[in-house]
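Same chain as my last thread, 248 residues:
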Amino acid sequence: MSHSANSRVQKHIGDPFSDEPAIPQEKLEEIFADIQSDLRFDHELNGCLNCGICTATCPAAHYYDFSPREIVQLLWTENLDGIYDAMQEKIWACAQCYTCAARCPFGNSPGGLIMLMRETAIKHGMQSAKNVLRPFSRVMLKLISTGNQLSPDMINPEHFADWGPNISKVDAPLKLLRKAIPMPTLNTTETAWEVNLKTSVELYTIWEETGVLDQLETIDENLFDVILDIMDEKREDWDDWKDEQDDE
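reply #2:
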């Protein structure tokens, strides 16, 4: 029986056949090249003794099918199939606490490597990235469209209904709790600092030039369109304001 040179994603461990379409070798190489070409890659990956200290101290490894050591080994050995498979689910289990980086005798940072893999998953519009980021669309809209921080009183069932029943756990009496804080925190929707028009336009330019908006389009096209409309409107307001200054 001949074997295909292409890769595929297993539906379950030990699954020898699958109806899922094969992933072309060229695509696997492109994905790994994007990870490896990042300036942070050589700093985060220095070698691996396969000692398992990173996994032994990893909080996520205790609760999920996740191992920092596995991620390092996949990248160190350039296991393209394994890297692609890990990017479908496992890399999203990392809590980015960097306990692994503090413990590794080789000075590796599995958490940092996972960050590169996540960014690459977003760049390539992988379904895993779309699934993970979808509940945070409102947060991204707030941050990208205004440049402002997310205020705690936005985290409530009305704003984040798609987060499911667990959102009720954070439905605390925030206004009452803040009265017990002696100094103003400036972190509510009513008192949060506002970004002026010029700064907003400058932020939009940064989002464009750094490729943030291009990546957003691959993940959530609807959110991308909404943000573009907001950006166009504010740029028009900025141009109008400059014209008014010239007239004076």
